[in-house]
Amino acid sequence: MEVTLLVQAADESFAILEKARVRAVDLMNTAAKLTSETRWMEEKKVRAIFRGAQETRAGLQNFAVTFVILFLFWALLSGKYDAFHLSLGVICCGIVAYLGHDLLFYNVRAGDMRVIAGRFLIYIPWLFYQIVLSNFHVARLVLSPKLPIDPKLMRYKTKLESDTSMVTLANSITLTPGTITIAIENGEFVVHALSRKVADDLNAGDMEDRIAHIFMEADHIYIQDVLDVARIFAALR
Amino acid sequence: MIHRGEDVIIRTIARMLIPFIQLYALYVIMHGHYSPGGGFQGGVILGASLVLLLLTYGYHDARSRISEKIMIIFSSLGVLIYAGIGFLCLLLLGNFLDYSMLSRILHVDAAHARSLGILGVEIGVGFAVMAVMVSIFLDISTGGVLPGDEEEKEKQVPVSEV
Predict the structure, then answer these.
(1) Global pTM value
(2) What whole-number distance in Å separates Cα of residue B94 and Cα of residue B98?
(3) Is residue A231 part of a domain?
(4) Do A163 and B31 touch (CB under 8 A)?
(5) What is the pLDDT of residues A151-164, one digit of tens each?
(6) Which of B71, B56, B73, B67 is nearest to B13 (CA)?
(7) Which residue of A87, A109, B43, B136 has the smallest Cβ count within 10 Å?
(8) Mind listing the pLDDT tens digit for each residue in A201-233?
(9) Cβ neighbours of B18 in A, within 8 Å
(10) What pLDDT is recorded for position B95?
């Protein structure tokens, strides 16, 4: 009799302890969820503010840069530099830049444009050098009596993300003698290579790395991200 | 129906070229009285740039830039500018499209007034040609029924039945 009572008492106390534990866990879970939710919402708000500012800035930047490029094109075409024709040019460039500011530069982040332009200008001489090198290679192939060509189609998986960088790579491949881009299918290049050497050169991925560097893609860091983060840290401090 | 092109290269290159084609078209229109070209040629180039946009991006994506309503307004506006300048010359006691009469309201000499009048007429012709080109292209490629029209027609059916 006494033993059963004792067991009952022990059971009850265990049950109470268990209940308390469950309640404590529930409470802690709710608290954690609440904090994470509020934090997530705050983060989302901050991100939305930044993205809105980024979009406006990118739009303005695209408009300004498109306008300048188009006006240079107009000056080249027109050849009449009196006030009347220049003002006509300003109006026309304004209309075209306003209607097409997201056509010439699509999805370019504000602040990155200058870096991209600079790196692209450095890339062009390198591309010319490559073109000259493979020109000699193809000339040797063509002039040698045995004609040691090994033409093949190869699929080339790329790590590039945006349309612009993929098109830059495709056109660079086509410009280089010996290789021609036939199509881009879901981020996979179909390339025709004339010999083993040019195919190996392409597979080494030097050109792709350089283009990823220009457009700050794959494992490269966005400059604007670093600047934004630096500002947030400064504000927090 | 025009669908969005699948080729990334063509789409991107077309996207980058379209502003330059449009600016070249405007150059041809604006310099029509000095060099070869003019309203019709410039309008055709401008229309061709919009057709290129439609072909590469499809009607659904290009709709915000080129809608049939805007094209109708532009084609009428072009004819209005042309005829308006012509009738303005009539009102100023000259012949139809006698630009030298415009010198009375523009406060410039007759030669300059002729030049400005021709420029205005060229702009009108350019607008009209561009808009008519694009709407002919839209009509041919869609069989006269644009996706937006179908929705509107479906909405209107119950009203007519009642």
Answers:
(1) 0.76
(2) 6
(3) no
(4) no
(5) 989 888 888 888 88
(6) B56
(7) A87
(8) 888 888 888 888 888 876 666 666 677 677 777
(9) 100, 103
(10) 86
DSSP state of A232: H
Judging contacts by C-beta atoms under 8 Å, the chain A residues touching residue B7 are: 183-184
Q: How far apart are CA A64 and CA A67, in angstroms?
A: 5
CA distances in angstroms from B129 to A111, A140, B33, B39, B57, listed in the order given: 40, 53, 18, 8, 22
Residue A237 belongs to a domain: no
Among chain B residues, the shortest Cα distance to A78 is held by B27
Q: Dump strand ranges (E) for A57-198.
A: 152-157, 179-185, 188-193
Size of interface A-B (CB pairs under 8 A): 60
ipTM of this complex prediction, to 2 decimal places: 0.82
Neighbours of B31 (CB within 10 A): 21
With beta carbons less than 8 A apart as the criterion, state whether A78 and B32 touch.
no
Residue B160 lies in a domain: no
| Spatial CB neighbours of B66, under 8 Å, sequence gap ≥ 6 | B50, B53, B54, B134
Nearest by Cα to A199 from A131, A153, A165: A153
The CA distances from residue A76 to A62, A72, A144, A157, in Å, are: 21, 6, 45, 40
- Looking at the structure, tell me whether residues A130 and A54 fall in a common domain: no
| In-domain check, residue B150 | no
Inspect the interface and report whether the beta carbons of B15 and A103 lie closer than 8 Å.
yes
Which of A54, A88, A110 is where one domain is finished? A110
Both tokens of A108, joined, read 């370019």
Question: Domain residues for A160?
Answer: 114-224
CB contact under 8 A, B27 and A70: no
Provide the number of structural domains found in chain B. 1
